[in-house]
Design brief:
Bound molecules: ribulose-1,5-diphosphate
Number of helices: 11
CATH architecture of the largest domain: 3-Layer(aba) Sandwich
Helix content: 40-55%
Structural class: alpha/beta
Strand order of the largest sheet: 3-2-1-4-7-9-10
Order of helices and strands: HHHHHEHEHEHEEEHEHEEEH
Number of strands: 10
CATH superfamily of the largest domain: Translation initiation factor eif-2b, domain 2
Radius of gyration: 20 Å
CATH class of the largest domain: Alpha Beta
């Protein structure tokens, strides 16, 4: 797929989820690099940077996207176009491979936190979080899952379909029923778009309400997140931008019949570390307060 095709699918959320947008962007940039007809290494690199910008600007909240593209550009080195192209292509393959491996490792580690008989609640649709749930199910743990609908885009339908397809006992609930059901829940398992250096987890809108309800009911909240979702920028004091999407995703203005009603559609929110029990990464389970250490370690590698 071309950069423009991929970018437009990400904008329209035909490609979605922090991990998937990172992997598909990396593959789109690789494809572009392989087919770009340019002999001058400087101009070639400039064109790659422009391609990166087009992809990065699609969705501002998930740091996985910019971390993945920065990884590629750090490897796009060489004296000739051929050398730069080959280095970028192998970095792209390395990123995709290690990202899929990370999801499998998180599934493995995260499943150890799920015990036989657990009632799990999950919000939105996270490949990393669902991976841990499926692994526990495949390990013959008798689990049940509440999947939130996730207004306005209903990513909970995907979660419910995937889990039911695996034979997991899953019940779809509306987002506003989370507190009603929380008393039955043993563990909340969710994903992340970005983990900030102060341990805040940025994920689908409503996550912080889910975590607050869990905190009130003394239910642990487990976040499943690959380390490329940890944000270096936040160490430098940058605030994670929360994407606002078209209000039309929520309601048709005709409903208000010409009346002046504003509609807001922020699609992510930030959950404070005090409401999070642990973050499961491919390098192990950490406290959200250890996010800075993970980012520092990534800098050294
Ligand atoms: C998806 C979402 C997911 C994270 C993690 O939001 O909030 O929980 O991206 O997903 P959207 P994953 O549907 O708006 O992209 O674990 O698959 O990376």
């Amino acid at each position: 797929m071309s950069i423009d095709e991929t970018a437009s699918k990400i904008e329209k959320m035909e490609i979605r989820g922090a991990g998937e947008i990172a992997r598909s962007s990396v593959l789109a940039l690789k494809d572009y690099a392989l087919n770009l007809d340019e002999k001058d290494p400087g101009k070639y690199l400039e064109a790659l940077r422009e391609g990166c910008m087009r992809l990065k600007n699609t969705r501002p909240t998930a740091v996985s996207l910019s971390n993945a593209l920065s990884f590629l550009m750090r490897h796009a080195k060489g004296d000739s176009v051929l050398e730069i192209r080959n280095n970028l292509a192998s970095a792209a393959d390395e990123f995709v491979e290690s990202s899929l491996k990370a999801i499998a490792q998180i599934a493995d580690i995260g499943s150890h936190r799920i015990v036989d008989g657990d009632m799990i609640l999950t919000h939105c649709n996270s490949t990393a979080a669902i991976g841990a749930i499926i692994r526990a199910h495949r390990d013959d743990k008798r689990i049940k899952v509440y999947a939130t609908e996730t207004r306005p885009r209903h990513q909970g339908y995907i979660t419910a379909k995937v889990l039911a397809g695996e034979g997991v006992d899953v019940t779809l609930i509306v987002d506003s029923a989370v507190r009603f059901f929380m008393q039955e829940v043993d563990i909340v398992i969710i994903g992340a778009d970005t983990v900030a250096s102060n341990g805040f987890v940025i994920n689908k809108i409503g996550t912080s309400q889910v975590a607050l309800c869990a905190h009130e009911a003394r239910v642990p909240v487990l976040v499943c997140a690959e380390t490329y979702k940890f944000s270096r920028e936040t160490v430098m004091g940058r605030i994670v931008e929360i994407e606002e999407r078209d209000p039309l995703e929520i309601v048709d203005p005709a409903v208000f019949d010409g009346l002046d009603v504003r509609v807001k559609n922020p699609v992510f929110d930030a959950t404070p570390p005090r409401y999070i029990d642990s973050i499961v990464t491919e390098v192990g389970v950490i406290s959200p307060y250890a996010a800075f250490e993970i980012i520092k370690k990534l800098e050294e590698d």
